[in-house]
Records
---
Amino acid sequence: MKENVNENAGDLFCSGVLESARIEKLRINPRAEFGEALRKKDIATCLVKTAEIHGHYCPGSALGVMASMYGLHLLGPDCMNSDGVMENLLAIVEINACFADGVQAVSGCTLGNNSLIYRDLGKLAVTFAVRGKEEGVRIRARPEFKKYVGDAVPEFYPLMEKVIMNRAGTPEEEKSFREKGQEAAFALMKLPFEKIFVAETVVPDIPDYAPIAASAVCPQCGEIVMATKIDRDTGMCFMCSRKYREVEGRGIVEKA
């Protein structure tokens, strides 16, 4: 019995050492694992790590992962190590759905670090650009990707219609939908990029660097708010003045 305890303790120790080494590596460079996977064109690792933030596997996030890997390789190796601090690498994404999470995870361009620009166009497409360079690359999904998904996992789209679109699935069907989504995502990544994507050289319209705004205090709710986000007539925040927009499943929606 003691030997088993010692063996288990040894396993735990080794596991702890390996995990500590990984944590230290990521402490120094939080995007080290993504960078390595990008350089090796390891789509599977990128897909798994993307699912950590997206929450599940699906064709949409897989397309975002693949489009980002494709686009960043076309831009060059320097674009695979962006940490978002200087906002030099930008991703202009055209849909606020699963695809966008694949783009954010793999490229490191996120809403929070101001390197992700969202254009409310409803297209499975992303443009990667580097400040100071005239040309960027736009990657868009071919419509044929749906046929590949349907052929590889015939159950996926019928389940999607029932579970997601109609909100009428049973618990068993919801479980099956998640499983088929995983199958579909990993089936897509086996296809050549050119079979499901088109790459175009573009001259992108790039916004200025994100400004650092002063803070103000709303006289109505007393909360701190960016001075650029107050109603000029009343000095109140947009929430109190009932003048704001939000990004939701339908896109950018006026809430005034």
---
Amino acid sequence: MAKNWIVQGDPTSSGGRVLTGSPFTDIDGVPVARVTDQATCPQHKGAFPIIDGDATLIVDGQPVALHGSTLACGCKVLSAKQMRVFVDPGGGVGSGGGAGAGRAAAATAAGAAIAAATRFASANEPEADEAAEFDEALRFCSESGEPLAGVRYTLHFADGSTCSGIADGSGVSERICTGECTEIVRAELTPASESEACCALEGAFDQDQVEIELEGVQTNPVDVGHSVVEVRAKGHKRDLTPGEVEIAHRVFGDSVDYSTVKIHNHGYWMFFGFQDKHTAVTPNGQMYYPKPIYQDDFSLLPEDQALFIHEMAHVWQHQLGYAVRWNGLFVSSQGPAAYEYDIVPGTTLSDYNMEQQGDIISDYYMIVLLGDRVYARGSRGTPEQLQAVLSEFLLDPSSRSNLPGRRR
């Protein structure tokens, strides 16, 4: 049975959506999904990578994901957005494979298959009876330009009317068609679903809504059917305060470049809908605190210091070259168990996963340096145990051998 290639925006068996795809290979402008690309899963409350595909078809060094490919959570990705390119078990685009030169040949064959399928479809698609006289589409992005895939939107027009929809895998709205030039004055963005990401504090989930005031955005007769306006959801970010640098330096010393660390007063846009309002994440060397838990200075209160040092551990991991965002997808999928740790004689920091490391380091700061067990996150170690498990880290925090799985 032939299986369609998966593309960005395709659904999952649990009601989620494929978030990422190839930056170089697409079908009709929609990125092709590969093994390691990510999809949301409302059932398991997170974003998970695709873990299997067609090994005979390699795109950007990874097998192409197919209809029925599996996510790390166990759910499946389903083909719904394109029907043009597929793998036929009897041959077709799935007949090549191998490594080295075989991989290159497979990638070439894949690209040729897409091009041929696109040319064939374009030649056989009927043109619309009449085109809209005025239209526009909006691409919703984070402040750094990352697409807000699958976000729900409501657009408000100058005449008081509204329209709603769901952005595609590239963050692009449906085309807004009007009979005359119509100004779009505001966009409201709401995540399609919600879930816990990582580093959570206790508290109820509370879905975010982002409002963006628009200027100069309107349906127009220029480039009808093709024009797209980029709309960025902005937030506030700041440098570390002197107090924050001081307490972080007590733990990490000079192993971190504190001048490059930013603290944001909103959630991480790529986790929009998968980060509750009492959750902090640090996936890329910068900290993202939703407004309910954001502080202008995390060094003032002990409960804020405990969370801050945990997040600084992820900054430290990132700056030493550890793939925090990628590994976090696997580790945080374990839920609360990902943070639990026991200190066994002879173990070192590198024996623990990224979240356990964050809590161990935070607990060391709270219990050993501050003498405050009340606000410690894990509270599973005595001062002696924490000092022992961190002995190599404390001796040389700049050594990559302290990272998860890198024991000497």
---
Amino acid sequence: MPSTDISPPNVPSRVQTRHFATLRTIIALMLREMSTRYGRSPGGYLWAILEPLGGTLVLAAGFSLLVRSPALGNSFILFYATGMMPFTLYNSVANSIANSLNFSRPLLRYPSVTWLDAALARFILNTLTNLMVISLLFTGILIIAKTGSVLSFGPILTALALAAFLGLGVGLMNCLLSGLYPAWSMIWSIITRPLFLASGVLMLMERLPHAVQQVLWYNPLFHVIGLMRRGFYPMYKATYVSTAYVVAVGLALCALGLVLLMRYHKDILST
């Protein structure tokens, strides 16, 4: 009597193949962006690291002429960098994700490349680039300025992870809104102009009036920067910081952005 056993489909193998294909696609998109954005400039990708590094040092030097004494410690450049670096990481990730569909639009016509691949490629590349800049900058500051800081890497790494995560959430929402409503990019740019000052890059929450503190507490970047400074200044407690609040905001933005982009990404790409 012939056997009637039917072997089950090899589902794990197909899933594994898809995962490898997705990884290869993301790496290819990252390499494409590196060659497209920096391939023709002197120094290539190295310029992606030197440009923000130099810009931060120039701004720090300029502000140090206006603000003689930092709010924490004895080095203004360290105080400024602990605020500017997480802010720059957030801003860079958010802007790159917001433009991910437009940047990779020609490649998204191929079935093997998805909108999520394009977003993840830009997220990973910009996060890694900013982390290299941050590592080089703080290493240089701590060696040259001799601040005597005792670092606590837990708060520092948590703050940087939260900044990137928050940038991902904001970027996904802006990718959706700017794709459906082209004027949104300009509106968002106007709305967020004061964000540099309203995020605590140059100030401490504790030195602001109580009424202002109550309003700015809802800015998740203020929590991120406060947590970053807690890692560089052992005596600074930053009791207002709520990691759970930042995670909740990031999760809400990411979830909403992912769900809506799954629904509307074809409409955005067809315009």
